[in-house]
Design goal:
The chain is an alpha/beta fold. The chain has a single domain, classed as Alpha/Beta hydrolase fold, catalytic domain (Rossmann fold, 3-Layer(aba) Sandwich). Helix content is 41%, strand content 23%. It has an 8-stranded mixed β-sheet. It starts with a helix and ends with a helix. The relative contact order is 0.12.
Amino acid sequence: MRALAAGALGIWICTAAFGAVQGKEVDYSGGGVTMKGYIVHDDAFEGKRPGVLVVHEWWGLNDYARHRADMLAKLGYTAMAVDMYGDGKQASHPKDAGRFAAEVMSNMDTAKARFLAALKVLKADDTVDPARVAAIGYCFGGGVVLHMARLGVDDLKGVVSFHGSLATRTPAEPGKVKARILVCHGEDDPLTSAKQLADFKEEMDKAGADYEIILYPNAKHSFTNPNADHLSKEFGLNGIGYNAAADKKSWADMQAFLKETFAKKG
């Protein structure tokens, strides 16, 4: 992760020196905690632009999530990497990460409150068109954005889940899902069973959701994270691994999805 963080920081320093990418840390409150997010835009793009929330993996808001926000800014969006745990809390071990994630996902009211607090900050930014907002998430974050779509969060035009959890105890109700949904999933992800994938499709069909699932061949869980192979070896996390081709293709698929989503009327 340190190598990725250094690369992301180098990009920010280089571009910021020319007055392009502008990133800042932001404190905000919601769901009973103070959260520390990161919001970024590229002032090479003029006028109001769509906003995109970035929800982190189960490790917490780290440099990887900030890096993805920077990448979105370079595409012309204002992006905000959110803090779902509060106080910028991060995990350094899977046991802590699992506990942090479970604490949030076991109380959907709290999760929604924290998500909505970040959404409010993003929509209020001077560079953002508040009528055009979406969210993307990775692993834990993918599950979060899918749950927000299930809950019918207002003004959320679309969500993209990258190797996120698909299972739920609170399936979407018919007509409830307002956001368009893109699921970018590894074909060889052992953390999602064939039944869970089939159940998700059935759930979305019954709910009348506008959704698409793209399966990437030879891709495991966490296929977008260049640090996944290292984490797999360090902690014995079977079934996770980086796949450069799937990472590149899913990012391109996300770009096409966001472009089409924000072009839609209403």
